[in-house]
Amino acid sequence: MAWVEQRGMKFHVRLRMTDGTVTTHDLRADAVIRAKEIDVEVARDTFIDPRGGRIPLAEWVPIWESTHQASPATWAAYRSHLRLHILPTPGPLPLVDIRRQHIKTLAVALGPLCRRRLDTERCR
What we know:
The protein is of the alpha+beta class.
């Protein structure tokens, strides 16, 4: 169950986890609403720990690989794409920091590669 604590001029929404702090709000009313939202999310088993997105993409890929099923040929293609195109640019970024602009930049950089394959429809 989440609860609200005042710390100086801010209000913390706390949840009993390793560090306890989930969010900080300027207004008590906002903190109370977020605490209730967290309780509902926990009850519905839909609560996502906001700290989970702080993992860099490069560290998340092995976690994804361990749960993703694909044929050996598909894995070879995935690993090649990751090694050559994806991980060099946004790889060090935490998942929560990857924005639309990062993906657009990657798509523009891959544009010439995709244009050569348009007849096979692989890059659409």
